[in-house]
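retry 2 of 3: previous attempt timed out while embedding zinc ion. Reduced batch size to 1 and resubmitted. Inputs unchanged:
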Amino acid sequence: METELFSGAGESDLAGLLKRFFGYESFRPLQEEVIRDALAGHDTFVLMPTGGGKSLCYQLPALAKGGLTIVVSPLIALMKDQVDALQEAGVAATFLNSTLNAAEARLRLAGLYNGDYRLLYVAPERLMLPEMLERLSEWRPGLIAIDEAHCISEWGHDFRPEYRQIAELRGRFPETPMMALTATATERVRADIVSQLKLREPKRYVASFNRANLTYRVIPRNQPLRQVLDVARRHDGESGIVYCASRNGTERLAKRLEGQGIRAVPYHAGLDADVRAKNQEAFIRDNVQIVCATIAFGMGIDKPDVRFVIHNDLPKNIEGYYQETGRAGRDGLPADCVLLFNASDVAKQIGFIEEKTDANEQAVARNLLQQMVHFAETSDCRRRSLLDYFSEAFTDENCGACDNCLEPKETFDGTQAAQKFLACLYRIRERSGFGFGLNHVVGVLTGADTEAIRKWGHEQISTYGIGDEFGRDEWKVIGRELMRLGHARLTSGRMSVVELTQEGSDWLRGKAPLELTRPVVAKPKSRERRSRSERAGEIECDEILFERLRELRQELAAKERVPPYIIFSDVALREMARDCPATLEAFGQITGVGEKKKAKFGEGFISEIGAYLDEKG
Ligand code: ADP
Ligand code: ZN
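retry 2 succeeded.
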């Protein structure tokens, strides 16, 4: 039925297919190379961050080439959305999973035998059923794409045993190119994917993990509700996720936001499945603005227009933080990532770590946490710090989209402070023969009167109470910065203590001048400067018209029973509100407007734009 659409579309006209079906003018980095390799019959391995545009890598070959493309995905909940989106774009796609009743499944199978479809989405456990494999042989798939390929690796964060069976596919379909896609960056998982799937001399593509349209900020948490509200109000009506450490925390925050007139729902693994599904649906369909969630939320959503991600509590590690913030701004428009940081989170997390019984696990967790804290407290570019974690160099001096680059932190001559802190470590050890935790050290410096200090006689050492120029929290920040600089370190035993390092004692002898970051501790937040200047991905447009077009989109989406972003992305709406197309031809120039959407929605949007311009005069 779709065949006329394909006539004459050879693989050389990839750009034509891209515009015709998806309405895009150009490829994202690496997409075209991956597509050409797949079409040439090579196995491919594609590592792209969230929002990098992985889906297109297998969707376009499916259009350029005859036959059926099989997409293996573990995310059953997403399949319907993905297929809906393809159908809206005029691509014949379908899925098979446990949500279909027998009659519906039979109908789809008949269509598949008929050659009606270009893409079939299927979960691995279903694909690997013997009868399904038989059918597959008859359909002669042109490409097999394994999405979320890290699920095959036990080293990944999302291992699924059923993925292991997919390994058989390579032997069964020796002629069919396979494509493995993932956003998980660790080297070990990458290597594991390639060997587990038995990819044949795969062409490997690794995209940059820099998400240029995301702005990273770390703000000292003092009034979390107000701070979340600030961000939400700056993004009036736009979608956001607030990650909280506890289930209770998500529910409490959602209630409080509701109390302030912001539509918010909680999401965590302890909610009933139907409540969870309902809340997720409300978020995806733009019926609520914010979802307050534990890290259980995110894998199963594809929403491209999440405009902010806030972390209300400190994440356990950078990998998690990167994945969670990565859910913002998939569409490429600017989005904000805000980490509300309070030093008390560190102590809390260390407490959890100390509950672990396995010493090795403890050491790993502590090390990961330390890197996370480093990210939170660094005065260097946040982007560089993140990319550094993934061994990717970011060489620009100033990224222009993180708090430290936009509003550089003040530094001060910390020579004296460092001297006091390090000398205190030395004296404590001299007195007691071993080290103490950061809290204790800071207590000694600030002259605290605690039982432990009296018990060990630390009120008698010379550094007791010499640090009254800073508060306890400020001293902790200074202490952690000195650890980052290598002058002190946290031991990795069961009770971690702060020790002077060799470097630290050398420095104490010479006392070369030392710049430290001025500690900012939960002091009332100064009005944040809103940097409107050229954010990466920004599309300036008539904001009032944009709002009207969003409303129109919402109505259409409700009528079609699909999420609004499946009708048009925010990128498309912003371009419409900028270019104000008055003809179908002009409308067709908008990013995301392919042939089918032009025919289906063009008139409606053009007349809405016309009406607005008339009213405006
Ligand atoms: P990933 O799966 O890597 O997270 P997606 O495939 O969901 O990324 O793509 C992210 C967003 O980018 C989607 O909204 C998609 O429509 C859009 N996109 C993908 N490729 C292009 C392109 N070449 N031009 C414009 N937008 C694109
Ligand atoms: Zn920066």
